[in-house]
Amino acid sequence: MTGWVAIVGLGPGRETLVTPEVRDVLAEATDVIGYIPYVDRVAPRDGLTLHPSDNRVELDRATHALSLAQQGARVAVVSSGDPGVFAMASAVFETLESAPQFADVEITVHPGITAMLAAAATAGAPLGHDFCAINLSDNLKPWDMVEHRLRMAARADFAMAFYNPRSKTRPHQFTRALEVLLEECGPDRLITFARAVSTSDEELKTLTLGDATSEMADMRTVVLVGNSATRRVGKYIYTPRSAS
Amino acid sequence: MTGWVAIVGLGPGRETLVTPEVRDVLAEATDVIGYIPYVDRVAPRDGLTLHPSDNRVELDRATHALSLAQQGARVAVVSSGDPGVFAMASAVFETLESAPQFADVEITVHPGITAMLAAAATAGAPLGHDFCAINLSDNLKPWDMVEHRLRMAARADFAMAFYNPRSKTRPHQFTRALEVLLEECGPDRLITFARAVSTSDEELKTLTLGDATSEMADMRTVVLVGNSATRRVGKYIYTPRSAS
């Protein structure tokens, strides 16, 4: 039996946002590897072994996946959203780079609906012009770099999407991020807090930067900040296609 | 009958990348409106009227959709990829803003797999760290703004995705974009030309900025530029999760 690793995105939560391609991979897999809440989204069945693991062990998970595949297993590595956006795909390739014994393992990546696009669709079209996506966690990069990117993004007049805005271990950084944005974009800029989009816990709130506070975000929140032209029409938020 | 407008993303091309949610919308629709090649992707059936239209008539299309829905039709407005990324969602909200007679029409947006994420998955994980998406067309913004955004994005050390890099009517601008990127990022930076991803015409080519030429892109190409840490491992391209 020839094994493989397929890195798949389960989308933001709602089952109807999982692509048929990802469903097909899961139907063929012998093993599923991933963070506990994502593995929980895969239905158990005969012949399928689930390997849930805790947060922040991405490289261990990747090594496990490559090693099982080398022994002939068909391994699905699951992420929520899209696996290439702040998720498992990079971790698997990092592992491959440092472990040449896995060079012959077949690896494929299968895209999913990433959180910012689901959040944007629910809000209207806030990412309808040029935009950027920034992971606000400083687990893997210095905080100074985050601030620098926020300033460059503001000066480019990008709409922005922030992943992992706030965690219990670093509650003050998102406060600082909001300060930087307020300085660069002014108090009237629109900001949307989109929590648990497409799940039963979904909550969306749009307000101005001047009224935003860091407690409005948690680790299940994607934060969208408009560009200088982003505005409301009725209950929707949108960014025009043309520049302001 | 209560009408509605559902703005849906058909994904980059492969049928297995269309979400079940979008399939459900298309199954309930009475009318489908969109650019000819996207409407062509919807199977005809009894009770469904297809309204294909030419490029660059986004606002006419949006008005048509809102007007039909107001008369009771269930209208799917189709884009390729994700409808919120350089596609029809913003055009519908722009129209709504200028035509308050449509204020009561129910509008929903249904996300899809946008081209840059499909391209990234095919290449490996080049968007695995902070990144931006820029529409290189200057139909709706001055070219100076495009150049400014390229420079800001390079200085933020974002990975980048470019939509609409080149058209017959403006062949020289992408040449200029490559010059700006070469100046800002140097000749060794990796660039991927991903053409018609997930279709039978799919072609992927990765090389360095120093070797890239503008003829490598056309309007069916999404261009991905790595950040300073993006590299090759085997046949894959990836950007590490941690900053360089």
Describe the structure.
The structure is a homodimer of 244-residue chains. Chain A is an alpha/beta fold. Chain A folds into 2 domains: 4-113, Tetrapyrrole methylase, N-terminal domain (Cobalt-precorrin-4 Transmethylase, domain 1, 3-Layer(aba) Sandwich); 116-238, 2-Layer Sandwich (Methyltransferase, Cobalt-precorrin-4 Transmethylase, Domain 2), CATH 3.30.950. Chain A is 30% helix and 25% strand. Chain A has 7 helices and 13 strands. In chain A, the strands form 3 sheets. Chain A has a 5-stranded parallel sheet, with helices on both faces. In chain A, strands 7-8-11-9-10 form a 5-stranded mixed sheet, sandwiched between helices. In chain A, helix 3 (58-70) packs across helix 4. The termini of chain A are far apart. The mean pLDDT of chain A is 96. At the A-B interface, helix 1, helix 4, strand 5, helix 5 and strand 6 of A face helix 1, helix 4, strand 5, helix 5 and strand 6 of B.
* Quaternary structure: homodimer
Helix percentage of chain A: 25-40%
Radius of gyration of chain A: 19 Å
Q: How many helices of chain A? A: 7
Number of domains of chain A: 2
N-to-C series of helices and strands of chain A = EHEHEHEHEHEEHEHEEEEE
User: What global shape of chain A is seen?
Assistant: elongated
User: N- to C-terminal separation of chain A?
Assistant: 57 Å
CATH class of the largest domain in chain A: Alpha Beta
What features would you highlight for this structure?
homodimer, 244 residues, alpha/beta, Cobalt-precorrin-4 Transmethylase, domain 1, Methyltransferase, Cobalt-precorrin-4 Transmethylase, Domain 2, 2 domains, five-stranded parallel beta sheet, five-stranded mixed beta sheet, elongated
